[in-house]
Amino acid sequence: SFDRMFVQVCLYFYCKCLWRCLKFVVRKLTGRCELQRICYNIKPGASRTMKIAIQCLGSSPTELGVSLQACLLQIVGYRNLIAEVEKLRREPYDSENPQHEEKLLKLWKCLKPDCPLEARISKQWCEIGFQGDDPKTDFRGMGLLGLYNLLYFAERDAAIAQQVLSDSLQPKYSQFSKAEWEKKKFDKAIGYSFAIVGINITDLAYNLLVSGALKTHFYNVAPEAPTLSHFQQTFCYLMHEFHKFWIEEDPLDIMEFNRVREKFHKQILKQLQNPDMALCPHFAASESLINM
To answer: Which InterPro entries would you find in this protein's record (predicted)?
Structure first.
């Protein structure tokens, strides 16, 4: 009857409100939400998982469970990414390892496709920005991570990487005569070594990751768990942006590198303070990663 239905409806809303009031009181007394109480008070296993499932799916809209799952995947994925990146950073370059050597030689071919490498130990390495005739010594700070990032940039964004390399080798003050150039003692190029700066920017990206600053970016561009490719795509962005920033700053020589780098670092940190920020470059390397 109508009266019975009316009583059931009233009872339903009464219980619903009463339960919410009870949860509110318990939360105020314990300082924990229901999910926290379940996690803290129930041992791991079916009981805990089923109660959480009921809490997420039973008493709330379906979207909550989906959203919670996506957020947890991102959070756990970020932690896993730190571990993966750290593992690469800690692994030293080994010239006796064929895979390491293969990647290094591939880096040369990607950056200098029309110029064969005459020998493994060669001064030619300086042409792509290494300090000596054997690049392995330059990877000490960042381990394999530095090589992986440089190779990713050179492979996935070949045109941009080669352009940045070419720019770094061009005279900065071409309007001066040779006599004026020698008198002023300017650097012979825009002012930095491509590979060395790439390893340095790898360090910058690594610190942004470990400090948690990149959470804003990754949580906005990776719907689920961020991967190593997302990190490498971020490196590509930072490398390209730093190159433009360096030219805009117009430093006198390489001795100003630390000052320019620190200023660039602060600029990126400021951008990442915006919760809607995503470092989304229009790079070939990022096209398949943004909004996957």
So the answer is: ELMO_dom, ELMO_domain-containing
